[in-house]
Amino acid sequence: MQNYQDILAEILIEADVLQIRVAELGAQISADYQGEDLLLICILRGGVPFMVDLSRNITVPHMMDFMAVSSYGVGRRESSGSARVSLDLTMDIRDRNVVLVEDIVDSGHTIAAVLQMLGTRQPKTLKVCALLDKPERREAHVPVDYLGFTIPNKFVFGYGLDLDEYYRNLPFVGVVDLDKYNQKPA
Ligand code: IMP
Ligand code: MG
After folding, report:
1. Pocket of ligand 1 (CB under 6 A)
2. Is 106 marked active-site?
3. Going by C-beta distance under 8 Å and a sequence separation of 6 or more, which residues neighbour residue 52?
4. How many CB atoms lie within 10 A of CB 107?
5. What is the pTM of this model?
6. Which of 55, 71, 154, 168 could, after both became Cys, cross-link 79 (CB 3.0–4.6 A)?
């Protein structure tokens, strides 16, 4: 696998800028859930770094759970109209305040499917917290209650977002140079 320096077109969001925004989101969630019980649900795998940092900035007591969703699509870099839960929660969300934590809302199909499924389990409240939003690509209307950054229609990686499962560890969000990236597109 190539080093990230060889496929990076530009850094879109620097690490310190990400951390400042994540701290702001944590403060906002802490204020909104003061005196309330809270459950953060991380959408694997892209939501992991974001949820860990967000959680450390949330001052109200809260729990965490995890779920994974696979989308069926033409290419691995796009999701199609349908999404399937491939790993379900271990906790019962009934009567709980739930915040879904996701790396990016792109077409919106993933979050739409998760919201629909979790909605049937009768949580007390159900909100979405996404680090990134690419509104130009939206196909399914989904509410994003807490948002880090709106970004242009470019393929990005780092801070949870992957390129063929690599580079999720990078502390910044970068734009990939698709001419230099050697992996075959799906
Ligand atoms: P949606 O269902 O189209 O909203 O897709 C959301 C999922 O697609 C995200 O959870 C990401 O895993 C993936 N995704 C969308 N855009 C990007 C990107 O620019 N880089 C990496 N992953 C992306
Ligand atoms: Mg992904």
Report:
1. 46, 71, 79, 102-110, 155-157, 161-162
2. yes
3. none
4. 20
5. 0.94
6. 71
Angle (CA) 113 69 34, round 5°? 70
Rg value, the chain, Cα = 16
By the 8 A CB rule, do 186 and 77 touch? yes
Mean pLDDT estimate for the chain: 94
Q: Residue 108 has which token pair?
A: 């919106």
Amino acid letter, residue 42: C
Residue nearest to atom 22 of ligand 1 (CA): 161
Domains and CATH numbers, the chain: 15-72+79-151 (3.40.50.2020)
Q: Whose CA is nearest to atom 15 of ligand 1?
A: 106
- Angle between helical axes of 15-32 and 48-56 (0-180°, round to 10): 60
Measured CA to CA, the distance from residue 35 to residue 50 in angstroms comes to 24
Dist. CA 161 → ligand 2 center (Å)? 6
For residues 152 and 136, the answer to whether their CB atoms sit within 8 Å is yes
Closest CA to 22 of 115, 159, 126, 154: 159
Least confident of 15-19, 75-79, 173-177: 75-79
